[in-house]
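Deviations from the work plan: none for this task. Representative record:
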Amino acid sequence: MNNQKVLIKGNYAIAQAAVKAGCQCYFGYPITPQSEIGEYLSGKMQELGRGFVCAESELAAINMVIGAVSTGVKAMTSSSSCAVALMQEALSYAAGDELPVVLINVMRAGPGLGYIYPAQGDYNQSVYGGGNGDYKIIVIAPSTVQECIDYTYKAFYLAHKYRNPVILLADGLLGQMMEPAVFGEYPYPEIDNSSWALTGAKNRPARAIYSLEPSESKQINRINHLFEKFDIITKNETDWEEFETDDADIILTAFGSMTRNIKAAMKVLRENDIKAGCFRPITLNPFPHKRINELARQGKDFIVVEMNMGQMYKDIKYAVEGQSKVELVNRSVGEWLKVEEIVSAVKKIMEKNYAASI
Amino acid sequence: MEKNFILAGFGGQGILLAGTILANAFMLDDKNVTWYPCYGAEMRGGTVNCEVVVSDTEVSSVHKKDCDYALVLNQQSFDRFVQNIKSGGTIIANSTLVAETKPRADIHYVFAQMGKIASDLGTNKITNVVSLGVLSSVTDIISKDALKKAVETVLGEKKKDLLPLNIKALECGESILTCA
């Protein structure tokens, strides 16, 4: 059963993976395009004797997650763009308090209420955050339904391993599409939270989790600790995928489900004698700066393809450090850039930048 | 090999379900497949469509510019998607609701009385399954056995009593072109 392929929607895949990962509590408020997650869990969690609350708002939902994970159990919430915006304050608290909050964001169009069609406009919101203070969130972006399962597992593991909030950044396209996928078993070891979890102080000294810190020096130490921790996360967990970059002159770059389109565009470009490669950050935070910089130093130029006004584009430029050219091919929201559109945009850029060499 | 199918019709005609059955059939045939619906404020009586992409290797993108096969169950869908078929592609239309016109010379047309066959079987609710039968007789990519298994998978235990009718609908759809 576990290794059997099933045809499943991205949203249901995430929900079922959360159950298999041992998520004990789900708190959420419905919003398209991710409502299937709550819908599935509303029945399943009850059946398993686990916690499910349809909260009165997203603000309440994420704070309920904070309460639940403070006791050391696995818990999560899921939402979409404009409602994830409401959760930013809590994410800052969760990062400051070192709490293993898992948040699924199935992106839709913004700004403001926007609409339910897919987009990738929450790159900045996820990677840089909208909460106050210096904090960092681990962000993982899946590109297929299978990865929705694999990275939901990973989100729970990393959150608990590092005591750090994790965002799984999917989009409406992934949430709504069905693909064959295999669940297998939750592949990670269970993390022992007994050294910090709030489980009742009988027979041990009392503990407290809070972010208030009147002592300046202690707060400096706390923030340094958070950033040292993220350095370790960067070293251990930075993840990316690259295809045919060895002999490439130009590297198409995308995150999430747009990866599929640049891979297809790369094949077409190669058939047209353009040496294109693909690079796809899997973890958006920590970001694979180092590898991108290496590729740029080999003289490879980058074309960033994304469904927003150029949010990851800035990070690629930053990583490239002026060592090679970086161009943007984008659309703000809605229907994903088609393979043909990417190919013709790349050709135009090639003509403009390399007129002499082609 | 990568082929993509558009399935379209009225909301309520079972388009998304037909796409789900088709995608299951490809999965049971060990192919890579992606199903993607138009989602939004769709409602009964409006138009609805979904895209099914099948591939021997990794499925690349959805939202493709043009499709290889369009299965359309009503006139609006015919008018809209006849424009979005690759040259040399095929449109398969439910002629119970679609006028038999051929606005383009570079594609193939298959017209079949899917709605009528379904009514003859007792309910026009099963037009979608009849249409899958017709589709499977037009292209070798779809295995007829896998399609039957897919119908069984999608109906599940709860609706097992509907299986004989659905299998009959598939078979009627498959044989319609050869009978006509």
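The two ends of chain A are 54 Å apart (CA to CA).
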